[in-house]
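Minutes, project check-in

Agenda point 3 was the complex the collaborators sent over. CS summarized: two entities, 661 residues total, and the question is how they sit relative to each other. Sequences were read into the notes so everyone works from the same version.
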Amino acid sequence: MTQPVLAVRDLSTHFFTDDGEVKAVRGVSFEVMPGETVGIVGESGCGKSVTAMSLLGLVQRPGKVVHGEIMFKGQDLLKLSNEELRHIRGRDIAMIFQDPLSSLNPVLRIGFQIDEAMRAHDKIPKEDISHRGIDLLKQVRVPDAAHRIKDFPHQFSGGMRQRAMIAMGLSNKPDLLIADEPTTALDVTVQAQILELLRDLNEQTGAAIILITHNLGIVAGLCKRVLVMYAGEIVEEGPVEQIFESPQHPYTWSLLRSVPRIDSNRQDRLLSIEGLPPDLIDLPVGCKFNPRCPFRIERCFSEPPVIEDVAHAQRAACWVTMTRAYDEMGAANITDTSPGAASGVHPQGRRPAADLAVAPAETLSD
Amino acid sequence: MSFVVFLGIHSLPGNTFVNERVRGASLALLLHEYGLDRPVLVQYWDFISHAVQGNFGVSIVNRGEPITPIVLRELSVSAELGGAALLLTIGMGVTFGVIAALRQNTWVDYSLTTFAIIGYSVPSFVIASLGVLIFGVWLFDVTGGAFYYPLTWDGTYGTVVELTVPAVALGLFTSSLVARITRASMLDVIHQDYVRTARAKGVKNRVVVVRHALRNALIPVTSVLGPLIISIITGSVVIENIFGIPGLGKEFINSILSHDYNVTVAVFTMYALLVGVANLAVDLAYTVIDPRIRY
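CS then shared the predicted structure for the full assembly.
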């Protein structure tokens, strides 16, 4: 059996703010196989980006990885010194970011910024660097690459800048590429091109890709496996088709139902998930999704669910799971998705309104 | 510009010869000799038509001495002082600003910030007066009596002390300001996405700070550099007079007080040129530092 290229175990990243300890990522574990494409989905502020940043040691003060293990090529990245970690960043694990407009340095030429990634490491021979810069731009389909490489970022369009970012990420032939919402700032046609590019590159170079997004459509288009995050935890994971077909966690189920569909009746209201993600400083007891879950039961308020196998290769952290919700609570036909609506559970006299009043202003942005 | 100054200086009451107590016919003779009895407009035309060829005429106080070489010599002294102050402003200001930003909320940051606040709160003439007191009077034996008027001109101005102390007095305000702007701008830039990108590429931390953060942080600093250079130029008038430095600033005051008309206009013209050149240089520096700007 092949070894995973990356194995994250029980990773926790907290931010020590004046208002309290923001537990952005709590006990996240997952593995990525060589050449695999894994999606991490979740709402804004659920800890996706912080997870990605933690992998490369890019979490800035007041944030800190407080616990866990990140095994990459047989070494724990969390135990490395800054200098040792620097040799892995951009060389073996590359990252591309959400906003290509602000992620490129405005005062340096595109070519320089791509070459810099190669010059920072010794993987690519010095004499090949400038040549490879142009080849990379060609590979990510920037027209007239030989000339455009001398441009500054402001002379590139949004899509081209993201291509340049990808070229930069691929420059050292990394084993793993982390793409943090690579298409969020781009319009849909460009989004499709970028995703197609990532897919081709994954096939050609064999680099594993972790794709972080809040867009389920993008996950479906690119990834083989998906991790669903909620309030800093992985609540469900499994093969993409299987998750889309039969989600077992009510959060995943709600997320899938809230995607607008072209074939639905225009008069139908979009189904949103009521309420807001919980305050990461003061988390609910038990299941973190209980204030918003239509299928919650008494147990959800006392014990945090453990992530366990719910089907072949699929795991979910839920006391109820959707199979039971379909069988016992008629989930297939419910129209009211307010908290506890399907199960009728409102412990300690709590009404849905009280549940919805939880989360204060978002403490984290990603 | 020169016209306004020319009219202004000529409309001052009295004339160059007040102190010489000449009256009547001899005064008229003197006025006639220097062409001062002619209408002001004619005098201006005479002056400006020579000035464009680089000849500012002769001094009236120092009877017949050509002005151009004097002003150029004084310009070199002032430029030396101003250059030193500017070097201090950029060098010290940027260095301290960067250090304070990188050590944000530590004792290093707090002491540098406090120092900067003192730096731009204390007026330059206070620092200058203290400088004269300490280095010119108390340390007379060490400095060999700096800031006593040099009797002869031997081609360059002053000793190290005679240059450094006035430069500090002149540049402390501006360097404190630059330090503060650099600190704020570095703190802003260091959290920018492209700095994170540079880190994610595995670039060395020192390179990240200098090449990615500082280069961008210098853009706002450059934009205040124009006004700061002008404040150095105007400040030099005060400083030169306190320290007795034989530069443009000292001549500026002396020539007005003694009604040495053409010298005043020449000095003014030099200042105007300096301000113009400084602003042009800043604008050019801007295009170098920020490629998004094109003229």
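Noted in discussion: Chain B touches chain A through 24 residues (CB under 8 Å).
Follow-up: revisit at the next meeting once the mutant set is ready.
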